Amino acid sequence: MPRRQDDVDGFMAALDHPLEEGVQRLRAAILAWLQLVLHRGAAVRDDAADFRFEDPSGLIEWAAPDRAVISFRDFGPVQGAAASLRGVGRTGSFR
Q1: pLDDT category, 87, cuts 50, 70, 90?
Q2: How far apart are CA 60 and CA 92, in angstroms?
Q3: Of 27, 29, 18, nearest to 73 (Cα)?
Q4: pTM value?
Q5: Helix/strand/coil for 92
Q6: 73 DSSP 8-state letter
Q7: DSSP states of 7-61 as a string?
Q8: CA–CA distances in Å: residue 95 to residues 8, 50, 51
């Protein structure tokens, strides 16, 4: 089975469009973004408003009462934060 990236790379190589350079730059920016999503399951739980993941790293941003994200613009900070990331989300607490 071919990789989806190979399909997109082939499409982009054959692209003949006046905005091709912009599309290529946008694609590179999107592929450089890394985001981890932390949640407690598919359904919202009754105790969602009172729950928080333990976050000694300070990396978590709350997207919803039961869902948090950690975002990076490139891979450099990911390597620097690797030790902190290992503990994030393993435990939680109630307010």
Answers
A1: low
A2: 13
A3: 29
A4: 0.54
A5: strand
A6: S
A7: HHHHHHHH---TTHHHHHHHHHHHHT-EEEEEES-SSPPTTGGGEEE--TTS--E
A8: 46, 5, 6
Which pLDDT band, with edges at 50, 70 and 90, does 35 fall under? confident
- Name the amino acid, one letter, at 9: D
For residue 89, which of 42, 57, 49, 45 has the smallest C-alpha distance? Answer: 57
40 by Cβ neighbours in 10 Å (0-12 / 13-18 / 19+) ranks as: middle
The residue type at 73: R
Rounded Cα distance, 6 and 4, in Å: 5
Structural contact between residues 61 and 70, judged by C-beta atoms closer than 8 angstroms: yes
61 forms bridges with which residues in the sheet?
A: 69
